[in-house]
Write a structure and sequence with these properties.
The chain has twelve helices and 13 strands. The protein is α/β, with parallel strands linked by helices. Strand 8, helix 9 and strand 9 form a beta-alpha-beta unit.
Length: about 350
């Protein structure tokens, strides 16, 4: 899901190339307001869809959107450079999904001190109020939904769980992990991150960084140490796809429940096909559209958005279970990320 046939310029370079064009337009009298969008990566389908939504919303409202991204999850330096470039370009508002929730805060403060509205999309900063507002999935609830479903599907069979997480300390990854464990009826992340203290049901924990290739490697390593794994939690669908490949290569794909968070069209199709047991569907198009709307409201009226806006989440499963409300995968294909 992350393989691209064409080489990509680094995110800071992409922004740098955009600036002369933007400034040239301004010199000709183009008075469109500038809104920035900074995502974690260019290739993750979730952020590709978020960018599409922001571009559509900005065009509809007569704004210029400049998009940038880190090279990978955790690339704080690339996002800092993007903020600096957007400030130089005269951006009035910046929408950002932070790779490093703490390290990005000084750069965000610099932008806000300059009078720029900054809204977090998908991932909160640490502290949350480092941005003016947060438009995001309730990630803890997303984790709870798939944890409850996995527990119900497993029934009385003893759990042997592998968790493929994001990166240490990231709030989105922690919230989903915590929620999954809570939904499954196990202690939370903070008490279990130390492997010596983790509950016996969790036999393997690995950071796959939301990446398909890393998810496959992590799952292969988990299987080598614990071939009896029967439940796999993944922080997103690219890492779930990697986990499924590893299980299939080991001939174990039919005996393991894989649950995840995203709800992309491809992910929902994987639920239909049986490569993914269940997923929690979130809505990046809505995040982007609401973010652009808030940015334009600020630009026109100086009124700043504030607080947290829940952009929705639904459990998607092929087979429903009693006591855990879910949307059928067939219906979810008509809702995936707002595509249709």
């Amino acid at each position: 899901m992350r393989t691209l046939a064409l080489p990509r310029l680094s995110p800071p370079r992409l922004v740098a190339l955009a600036l002369p064009l933007l400034l040239a337009c301004s010199a000709k009298g183009d008075d469109k307001p500038v809104i920035g969008l900074i995502t974690k990566t260019e290739s993750n389908p979730f952020f590709v869809k978020m960018k599409e939504g922001a571009e559509q919303a900005a065009a509809a409202q007569g704004a210029t959107l400049i998009a940038a991204a880190g090279r990978s999850d955790g690339d704080n330096a690339g996002q800092v450079t993007a903020i600096e470039n957007l400030m130089a370009a005269g951006a009035r508002a910046i929408l950002i999904s932070a790779s490093d929730s703490k390290a990005i805060v000084p750069a965000i403060k610099k932008a806000r001190d300059a009078g720029i509205l900054v809204i977090a999309l998908d991932s909160p900063t640490d502290p949350v109020d480092a941005t003016d507002a947060l438009f995001a999935t309730d990630n803890y609830k997303a984790g709870q939904l798939i944890g409850q479903y996995a527990k119900a599907r497993l029934g009385a069979t003893p759990a042997r769980i592998a968790t493929l997480d994001l990166i240490p300390g990231h709030p989105t990854g922690a919230q989903r992990h915590n929620g999954f464990l809570s939904g499954f009826g196990l202690p939370s992340y903070e008490k279990t991150r130390n492997e010596l203290a983790q509950p016996p049901e969790v036999v393997c924990m690995s950071d796959a960084m939301g990446d398909q290739a890393k998810g496959q490697t992590a799952m292969e390593n988990c299987l080598q140490a614990h071939p009896d794994i029967n439940v796999v939690y993944t922080v997103n669908e690219p890492s779930a796809a990697g986990a499924f490949t590893a299980l299939k290569n080991a001939g174990k794909e039919k005996g393991v429940l894989i649950v995840s968070v995203d709800g992309s069209c491809r992910g929902v199709q994987n639920v239909v096909d049986g490569a993914l047991t269940a997923t929690a569907q979130q809505y990046p198009l809505r995040m982007a559209e609401l973010g652009v709307e808030a940015a334009m409201a600020f630009i026109k009226t100086a009124k700043k958005a504030s607080g947290y806006v829940d952009t929705g989440v639904q459990l998607i499963a092929k087979d429903s279970v009693a006591g855990v409300p879910s949307l059928s995968a067939d219906k979810a294909l008509g809702l995936c990320w707002g595509d249709k």
